[in-house]
Please model this.
Amino acid sequence: MVKLTDKEKQMMDGSEGSLKQKAMENIVSYANVLGAEELCVVTKAHLFCGAHSYMKALQSDNIDEVMSEMHFCSSDKLILDKVSCYSQSDVGPMCPFNWDKMGVSEKEHTENLNYLNRYLHSGVNLVGSCVPYLVGFIPLMGEHYVTSESHAVLIMNSLWGACGHADGLEAGFWSAVCGRTPLWGLHIMENRKGTHVFDIECPSETVLDWDLIGYTIGRKTPTHSIPVLRKGFKRPDITKLKSSYASMATTGGPEMCHIVGVTPEARTYEEAVGDRQPEDFATITSNDIRESLEMLNEGGRSRLDYISLGCPHYTIDQMRQVATFLRDKRVNNNTVLHVWTAAPIKETSDRCGYTKAIEDAGGIVLTSSCPLTSEKKPRGAETMAFDSGKQAHYIKPGSGSKVWFGSMEDCLRSAVTGFWEGE
Amino acid sequence: MSVKLIKGRGAIPGVSEGIAMVSMETIQGWSGLDDKTGLVIERGHPFEGMSIKDSVLILSGGKGSNGWSCHFHAARVSGIGPAALVFPKMDSRTGVAAVVTGVPTVTDLEDDPFDVIRTGDLVRVDGNKGTVEIIQRSKPETQQN
Model:
């Protein structure tokens, strides 16, 4: 059973209120499930805030009842009124500013705002993005954080040596309230050595290349593995890894991925794997990439009803690229184009004229959500394209739609002609 | 009639019985489990089209979204959740899912459940003692890995 400090015992016995008590009870239960011996202090929490669809399972209109059960697993009513560490919101179920341009009703918008205000009053910064690390959420090496975004775990663990896990959405709230998470797994630096080595023998130049590399490694790496990219790749940047880790987290479960010579715990191959002999070695070939591309693509040159870009949320440079392409062009009348980014990044995009260029062409710029987490698509849209392996992979099963996947440029050319112009 | 007992560690207490759904493949949460119907919708998964309601889910782990747990949570709240959970080894996704689903859960098993238990077997999961017991074998034609 997990050992608690005096402070933790105080929270557990209710001395600091029923909200902290329930949060601690859940964290202790989580720690015991994992077999953790103690807890560690969490200093940053990225939380899945909003009137999300899964919360409707309770079938209640009462925010406190819903939060009590769906965040804290409590049938007693708790009021979420205070978080105890720096907290920032993840995506919500809609863009809170342009909700009417994405098929959301006023009622849904008002309900979501009520939820957002509650989180705000408890101390959560309403950033609303799946790329928290681009907007102020930067845990340092050895710093313990929680996040509701699977690819952000890979980014923050691998690129900076910070310590987090793919904890479920609920655990983020528990940690934000009581400031603790189990000291287990990747929260312990010795547990972070690579287990499965991948050499790259396929293209690694573009964001699309890296998206597919991530998707393919995720497919091939076993449960509970820590992949290591050993050699054969061109040096990636944060934009390429943003897409790569998003797809990797989707098809596999890795929470850490070393890239030799790029990530700080893998300055050399020997540092990445430590004393242990890796469990397996594999090569990612162009055939493997082709297989992944075929899994994500319907095939053929179809008319497209809907194209969505910006998963994960676009950087300001990606917004600039879209604007540059669409300047003096028009999105086809039969195709809806959405471009998603984080609200703080959109502010810069507005000021730089990128948003206007995209909107003048007929595109719609949205923030704070995405097709997957909003569960919204343009009415009647049956054929869709994405420049994200993650969106393409996830959207198809629930929607029954036909899906295509390619680069940003493939998608933008398609938006103009109204037909799939990629492979 | 008890055929086989696997010992492990109780993660969430309680005792429950149900029909086993066994897969070495992890299952994704988003677009993997429809928490409104309890049906598995992950394309190509051995469980595709099957309902998890009242089942004993035996999986290698979780993958995909950090929202893995919320689908099991929502399914439980809607009354279509599993009866018990068995994971040979825990990870963060399955760990939180075990807490929020709140059903008997056993982990750290001494024997490999994928060698022993088949989909369709009736099993009893004892989260107090940390055991998984096959009560009745499924008929051969319903067995799958």
In short: The CA atoms of residues 60 and 66 of chain A lie 6 Å apart. The two ends of chain A are 54 Å apart (CA to CA). The mean pLDDT of chain A is 96.
